[in-house]
Design goal:
With about 450 residues, this protein is α/β, with parallel strands linked by helices. Helix content is about 35%, strand content about 25%. The strands form 5 sheets. An 8-stranded mixed β-sheet has the order 4-5-3-6-7-8-9-10, with helices on one face. A hairpin with a 4-residue loop joins strand 4 (about 180) and strand 5. Helix 9 crosses helix 10 and helix 10 crosses helix 11.
Length: about 450
């Protein structure tokens, strides 16, 4: 049964009895053959020696390259042009013949980057364009189960029971609801913007307790703010572990949260493109070698290495030597720190002093898939401009859709005006900044 079928079934169930059906949906996820196969492979991988893991990773790399050569027009032409011969023993030498795939290259490649295999069922999503560009991404339907298996296998290291544990996640927006329930993950999703309502912390604690979630997940900025409000009001909440994602965390804020909730926490790194996954610590980055093959290539900055990845989990749109905007900084002591486009302390200021961070403002909309770049600009609280580089502009309907999307995500805390520009400001590394904030109130 596909993830989309399960979702459709869930949405047809009356709200009053949805909770009673939650065990069915959880079991439908973890008992799915693709989930079980991936889980079992992860278990075997953990039991292998380092050499055995590397050998299996190279086998998967060769299989991924062979599939792309035979089924994806973009790579078929590229392999021929670069004389990539997968029958040769040294697969890494053959991989190195291929150029890096920048996001701009993927956008320009269009449909030629999609597999022509008629057997593949897939779904469509969009990268948020945190680097200023949005990319249409096609993913295998079955990858939903593989992704969940990888996530749950990591979670299980921290006491998470894949059949019984419940999670409260802070991300996204709730469409005028206090929260919504995700049946396949057995979690309630709470909008970070709910934190700006009066008595929000007390009500959220009540909802989490009622649901029975012992794990928190989501944006570090939102969870930190939630715990600050809890402390201010003298509230407590039993939490076993926190799973951070979508933003980098501040180590000092992490210590504060862990100390107040008397729990542990961890951070996960990945992308919409499903080409890389890693567990991130204060001074470590551990890439998952069963998920993909990751290269760290020297950047223009001393001690910084760009993350270049080849994913193994989805065939419809293979990402081979995909060059991310993230880098790993390696110190003289060998410690590794993940930095890049997701590490940013910049935030927009909403009405009433609400701090709006990047994770909540990244755009996942079709209307922006054809633009050159976008960037937020703010000079006064509660209002911001969405600067868009698009020679032809958007239609009025598209503009309304984009502004409506932002209004829903921010729950009315930020008024947006669209302005067309020839270029957006970039960092010293030449990467587009997600926001430029010039207001004395920050």
């Amino acid at each position: 049964m596909s993830g989309s079928t399960l979702k459709a079934m869930y949405e047809k169930i009356p709200t009053s009895v949805k909770a009673a059906f939650s065990p069915f949906f959880v079991h439908a996820m973890v008992d799915n053959p693709e989930f079980k196969r991936t889980w079992e492979e992860l278990e075997r991988f953990d039991a292998m020696s380092g050499d055995e893991r590397h050998a299996l990773q190279l086998v998967k790399l060769r299989e991924t390259l062979a599939y792309a050569r035979d089924n994806v027009p973009y790579y078929g032409r590229l392999f021929e042009e670069r004389d990539v011969d997968l029958s040769r023993e040294d697969i890494l030498t053959e991989l190195a013949k291929l150029p890096l795939l920048e996001k701009a290259d993927a956008i320009a490649a269009g449909d030629s980057l999609y597999s022509i295999d008629p057997r593949l069922k897939y779904f469509e999503t969009f990268t948020g364009g945190s680097s200023g560009q949005a990319l249409r991404v096609l993913l295998d339907q079955s990858s939903v189960y593989r992704e969940r298996a990888f996530a749950c296998h990591t979670y299980a290291k921290h006491g998470f029971d894949i059949r019984k544990s419940r999670t409260a996640a802070f991300w996204g927006h709730n469409k005028q609801m206090d929260y919504y329930y995700s049946p396949l993950k057995n979690e309630i999703v709470i909008s970070p913007f709910r934190l700006y309502r009066e008595q929000s912390a007390r009500e959220i604690v009540r909802d989490i307790r009622k649901f029975g979630a012992m794990f928190l997940a989501g944006y570090p900025s939102a969870i930190f703010q939630f715990v600050q409000l809890m402390k201010r009001e003298g509230l407590t909440l039993p939490v076993e572990h926190i799973f951070y994602y979508a933003e980098n965390y501040d180590p000092d804020k992490r210590v504060f949260v862990d100390s107040y909730l008397k729990c542990t926490s961890s951070s996960d790194y990945g992308h919409t493109e499903h080409a890389v996954k890693a567990e991130v610590g204060d001074d470590s980055v551990e890439f998952n070698d069963l998920y993909g093959y990751t290269e760290l290539l020297p950047s223009d900055e001393p001690g910084e290495f760009r993350i270049v990845c080849t994913g193994f989990t989805s065939k419809k749109m293979p990402f081979i030597r995909y060059a991310t905007d993230d880098v790993v900084k390696i110190g003289a002591d060998g410690k590794r720190c993940l930095i890049g486009h997701k590490r940013s302390d910049v935030f927009l200021l909403g009405k009433g002093g609400a701090r709006i961070f990047k994770g909540a403002m990244t755009l996942h909309v079709d209307e922006l898939s054809g633009i050159g770049a976008y960037q937020y600009y703010q000079s006064e609280p509660g209002r911001a401009k969405l600067l868009i580089v698009a020679p032809g502009g958007l239609t009025k309907t598209q503009e309304n859709n984009v502004m409506g999307y932002i209004n829903r995500r921010t729950e009315g805390l930020l008024d947006i005006e669209i302005e067309y520009v020839n270029e957006v400001k970039v960092s010293k590394r030449g990467k587009a900044l997600w926001a430029v904030v010039e207001t004395s109130e920050l």
